[in-house]
Amino acid sequence: MESSPLELPMQATSVAADEGARAAPVAKASRIDDMDIVRGMALFGVLLMNLAEVFRVPYYGQKGPPLDLPLLERIVVRVQMIFLAGKAMTLFSILFGTGLAIFWERANARGTGATWLLSRRLGFLALFGLAHGFLIWNGDILFLYALTGLVGLLFLRAPTWVLLTAACACWGWYAVVGPNWPAVWAFAIREPGPGHYSEALRVYGTGTYLEILRFRAYELLRFEPFSYVLNVPGVLTNMLVGMAIWRSKVLELTARETLLRTLRWIAFTGMALGIGYMLFRWIQFEIYHSPQARGPWRRVLFLGCILSCALGYGAGLLLLLRRANWRRRLGVFAPLGRMAFTNYLTQSIVFSTVFYSYGFGLVGKVGNAPAALMGIVFYTLQGFASAIWLRHFRFGPFEWAWRSLTYGRLQPMRRGAEA
Q: Would 8 be classed as within a structural domain?
């Protein structure tokens, strides 16, 4: 099976014998379980942050959590901000870039028009994203990933040093140039009006499904398109880093002692910088009540620490997975990572129903702590469901649909079926 950007990547195996074969997924034996596990854990962090910031309350017009929260709420909010905010999504987008490189490499080795096939795949992902964003939930990330991935196609033939240089350039634009170029900033940012948040609470909490559709379409068309001017370079940075990780063969060489030392250094330094800086901000703001510093250098430091922490998480997990006892414990996340596309969309379907008026209407009525508990319970259930599903089927249902659209024919679904 070919790897997909939201699904599990493949190990580097010889495909010379398949030259000239028609485009088709490669054998399951080439999957990299480590990447499935890391992806599954990253998706868990993404779910917890989505529950905190987008499902539980309206996304646009938020002013941040109040300072007078109960103790448990304050603890949950701070844990999320220090350990997860920005970091889980960054790690997930790095893995997306790795998946792009793997998919292209496999398809290119088969001589099947790799760039066209991957463009087609990303095009269908964009359609999934549009349907997801307009019909289900306006926290969609799929369309942005598809758009950024199409830009990333320009770099798929590049060597590692070019990928890293381009990543630095994109990061520099995202962190320094973009926000400080007034013309770009004024064009890209559309701030919600003062009454938008309360109106969103009313519509999502009590409106009909048609009213919610209209309001969500207004929000997406009003606030999202222009933000891509700033967001695409940031996401592209992460994807290019993911491509470079695959191109450098890091994932194939984790048994080498020299690489293990490098991974230890990345894990320790990345997490120390990322978590340490967020702890500093928490102490500064909540204990000493100092206003948050603003300006380009604060943004550079903030975004740099998020990226370094995400890389630290990834390196730390790869190190843990070298140990048999940790591999057994963390292996429960592998099915979740294999079905990341299905699990992500299922989360949107379930939690939009839980929080919107056509379901339980809980938007704006649930605190961070109960929402986090919902996420833990639901992700546990998704873990059981994913493991059971994959005993009988080769892909999750949405992965199957996406693959079938990509290759232009229905893919075999049941285990043991011909590839």
A: no
